[in-house]
Amino acid sequence: MARGIDYGNLMHQAMRGLIQTVLADVARDGLPGAHHFFITFDTTHPGVAIADWLHARYPSEMTVVLQHWYENLEVTDEGFSVTLNFGNQPEPLIIPFDAVRTFVDPSVEFGLRFESHEEDDEDEEDGDDPDTDGDDSPRPEAEVVSLDKFRKT
Fold first, then answer.
1. Beta strands per DSSP E along 34-105
2. How far apart are CA 13 and CA 32, in angstroms?
């Protein structure tokens, strides 16, 4: 029998679908107006493909900007690939949607942040109560991200 509705996972799927739609539109039509994106992703995630020197410089997390110069933006159901310029050196990147940690478009004060549920899975495998951490305080299942933190003052 099902344990319940996994709203956190469903919300993450919906948010990743939103990113997929936005990037597919940009791949087809280009960035409209002042829109630009800051995308932070987990460089250790399976399926991420970046140059060795970039991985050495960013061993766990990297933020890229899609704004003035990018080429070959391609979007699939699993993720996206793009070529970006790093110090006049074009580098192709492959980023699965599951590796994305944050997606921000500061031009319209929009942002998404994905919380990791790996700790939850490990706790369940160990037989611990998935709703608490080591000191018995409640663990949030999902985080509502206020757009106020991205507002320009």
1. 37-42, 61-66, 70-75, 79-85, 90-96, 100-105
2. 25
CA distance linking residue 26 with residue 32, whole number of Å: 8
Select from 41, 114, 120, 44 the least CA-distant residue to 79: 41
Confidence band, pLDDT 50/70/90 cuts, at residue 68: confident
Residue 116, pLDDT > 80, answer no
- Angle of CA points 146, 61, 12, to nearest 5°: 45
Position 1 scores a pLDDT of 55
Q: What is each CA distance from 31 to 24, 34, 35, 85, 105, in whole angstroms?
A: 11, 8, 6, 17, 11
| Amino acid, single-letter form, for residue 95 | I
- Residue 43, pLDDT score: 93
SS3 55: helix
